[in-house]
C-alpha cells in the first residue's frame, strides 16, 4: 500500500488510490458498484445531516460545539468525500478535473460582482 501522504498535502488522487487499495485488500471491489456507492454516499449524507438536525442555525466555525462533536462532523464529512471519490473513480470520472471545469462553467454562468448598485 502507498505511504500515507502528509495530511496538509493530500490530493484527490491520494484519496482515490487509498480507497482503491482499501477495497482491494478486503476483496470488496465486487460490492463497489456505481449504484451501491451512490446509495452508500446518500446514506452518509443522511448521517451528516443528522449532526445538524434540530439544532437551528449554527455559527460559522462551530465555536460553541464540543471537540467531540467536531471530530464526529469530520468523520461524516470524510465518509461523504471518500464515497464520492470512489464513485467518481468507478465511473471513470477524473473528479479533480471535472470539478475545476465545473467551477469555470459556474464563473461564466454567474459573473463577478462589479461593485455597481442595482
Ligand atoms: N463496503 C464499504 C464499507 C465501508 N467503506 C468505507 C467508506 C466509508 O468511509 C466508511 C463507511 O463505513 P461504515 O459503513 O461502517 O459507516 P460509518 O463509519 O458511518 O459507521 P456507522 O454507520 O456505524 O456510523 O468505510 C467502504 O469503502 N466500503
Summarize the biggest pleated sheet: none
Q: In percent terms, what proportion of residues is strand?
A: under 5%
Radius of gyration: 18 Å
Termini gap: 56 Å
Mean pLDDT: 95
Number of domains: 1
pLDDT under 50 segments (min length 5)?
none
Q: Which homologous superfamily in CATH is the superfamily?
A: MazG-like
By DSSP, the count of extended strands is 0
CATH architecture: Orthogonal Bundle
Number of helices: 4
Examine the coordinates and then state which fold CATH places here, giving the name of the CATH topology: Helix Hairpins
The ligands found in this model are:
2'-deoxycytidine-5'-triphosphate
Q: Can you tell me the CATH class?
A: Mainly Alpha
Element pattern in H and E: HHHH
Question: Which key features would you list for this structure?
Answer:
mainly alpha, binds 2'-deoxycytidine-5'-triphosphate, 4 helices, 0% strand, Helix Hairpins, 118 residues, globular
How does this structure look, described?
The chain has about 120 residues and is mainly alpha-helical. The chain has a single domain (about 10-55, about 65-110), classed as Helix Hairpins, CATH 1.10.287. The chain has helices spanning about 10-25, 35-50, 65-90, 95-110. Helix 1 (about 10-25) packs across helix 3 (about 65-90). The longest helix has 24 residues, at about 65-90. It is globular and about 60 Å long. 2'-deoxycytidine-5'-triphosphate (DCP) binds near residues 22, 28, 47 and 79.
Amino acid at each position: 500500500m502507498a505511504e500515507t501522504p502528509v495530511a496538509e498535502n493530500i490530493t484527490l488522487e491520494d484519496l482515490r488510490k487509498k480507497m482503491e487499495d482499501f477495497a482491494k485488500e478486503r476483496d470488496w471491489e465486487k460490492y463497489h458498484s456505481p449504484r451501491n456507492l451512490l446509495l452508500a454516499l446518500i446514506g452518509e449524507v443522511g448521517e451528516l445531516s443528522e449532526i445538524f438536525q434540530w439544532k437551528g442555525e449554527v455559527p460559522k466555525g462551530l465555536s460553541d460545539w464540543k471537540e467531540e462533536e467536531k471530530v464526529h462532523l469530520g468523520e461524516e464529512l470524510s465518509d461523504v468525500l471518500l464515497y464520492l471519490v470512489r464513485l467518481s473513480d468507478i465511473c471513470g470520472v477524473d473528479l479533480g478535473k471535472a470539478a475545476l471545469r465545473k467551477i469555470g462553467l459556474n464563473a461564466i454562468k454567474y459573473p463577478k460582482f462589479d461593485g455597481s448598485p442595482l
